[in-house]
Amino acid sequence: xxxxxxxxxxxxxxxxxxxxxxxxxxxxxxxxxxxxxxxxxxxxxxxxxxxxxxxxxxxxxxxxxxxxxxxxxxxxxxxxxxxxxxxxxxxxxxxxxxxxxxxxxxxxxxxxxxxxxxxxxxxxxxxxxxxxxxxxxxxxxxxxxxxxxxxxxxxxxxxxxxxxxxxxxxxxxxxxxxxxxxxxxxxxxxxxxxxxxxxxxxxxxxxxxxxxxxxxxxxxxxxxxx
Length: 226
Ligand SMILES: C[S@@+](CC[C@H](N)C(=O)[O-])C[C@H]1O[C@@H](n2cnc3c(N)ncnc32)[C@H](O)[C@@H]1O
What we know:
Largest sheet: 8 strands, mixed
CATH class: Alpha Beta
Radius of gyration: 16 Å
Strand order of the largest sheet: 3-2-1-4-5-7-6-8
Shape: globular
Order of helices and strands: HHEHEHEEHEHHEEE
CATH topology: Rossmann fold
Bound molecules: S-adenosylmethionine
Strand content: 15-25%
Number of helices: 7
Structural class: alpha/beta
């Protein structure tokens, strides 16, 4: 699997195919990172979220990991151009779950459009590796493509997923054939879903999970909220 071949085209493809929708999903729960000092971004891609987050929280420090050298290089170049000081952002070329973060070192874990890259067995290992790096009260922000429970929205999403996975499998040699729900895995590592926002008839989902948080949806479920 490698996103290298996609790297030169990733930003313009997103702009053409999705406009600002994915960035709205990435930043839906940005304010929940208030007070987080060390933030781990897995599968940073071109760093769209990294730059927005670094601007919003000038004291925070970032560790960005990506298996694609070409993606990571772009994230770093864009970050430097955006004025993010090298001391605040480190970039690690590594593949999860082989790469393991320092234990409990992070106040927040961010996985945007990342967990949907993995088949079930690998996803469990990736979540386990990332959860090990998360501190006792860590926040986990994630956004992904999703499949609504029922109705025409479900049929629509299934068709779009089939198309996307077909393309990504061909271009990047992705192993996953379909989306695997990460919720039970996150819950299994002590994270509680505080809030979920969806848009595009449930095709896009943005979650805020907290380790050791209160039971139930503290911020509620907000369909079409971004
Ligand atoms: C669909 S892109 C999403 C990029 C970015 N997070 C975003 O929101 O646009 C997935 C990214 O995860 C990286 N990736 C995929 N599998 C990985 C793995 N096992 N370890 C680390 N990075 C991986 C890819 O190289 C790619 O940059």
